[in-house]
């Protein structure tokens, strides 16, 4: 069964560590992006960042591309 490998891996210490690090990584970036979008009054971006989980990728994009462009103006 294909799903059994994933469950076995997640039950291992290495899988739990990777999962924990992934959650921490995502929470840090999401928190920073949400804070910046709220301070910049970007309501649509705030909702999108809050709802969509991309393991930090969309959050990093917002911080370094969208927010930087808005700060320059």
What's a quick, concise take on this entry?
By secondary structure, this protein is an all-alpha fold.
Summarize the helices and strands and which ones pair or pack.
Layout: H1 2-11, H2 13-39, H3 43-51, H4 57-72
Helix pairs in contact: 2-3, 2-4
Largest sheet properties: none
- The shape is elongated
The domain count comes to 1
Secondary-structure-based class equals mainly alpha
Termini gap: 54 Å
Count of extended strands = 0
- Strand/helix succession: HHHH
Stretches where pLDDT is under 50 for at least 5 consecutive residues are none
Report strand %.
under 5%
DSSP helix fraction: over 70%
Output the number of helix runs.
Answer: 4
- Rg (CA only): 16 Å
Oligomer: single chain
Could you report the average pLDDT, rounded to the nearest whole number? Answer: 89
Describe the structure.
This protein has one domain (2-72). It is mainly alpha-helical and 73 residues long. The chain has helices spanning 2-11, 13-39, 43-51, 57-72. The longest helix has 27 residues, at 13-39. Helix 2 runs parallel beside helix 4 (57-72). The chain is elongated and about 50 Å long.
Question: What attributes characterize this protein structure?
Answer:
single chain, 73 residues, mainly alpha
């Amino acid at each position: 069964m294909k799903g059994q490998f994933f469950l076995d891996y997640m039950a291992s210490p290495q899988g739990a560590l990777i999962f924990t690090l992934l959650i921490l990584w995502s929470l840090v970036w999401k928190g920073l992006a949400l804070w910046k979008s709220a301070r910049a009054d970007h309501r649509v971006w705030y909702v999108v960042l809050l709802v969509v989980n991309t393991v930090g990728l969309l959050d990093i994009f917002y911080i370094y591309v969208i927010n930087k462009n808005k700060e320059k103006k």
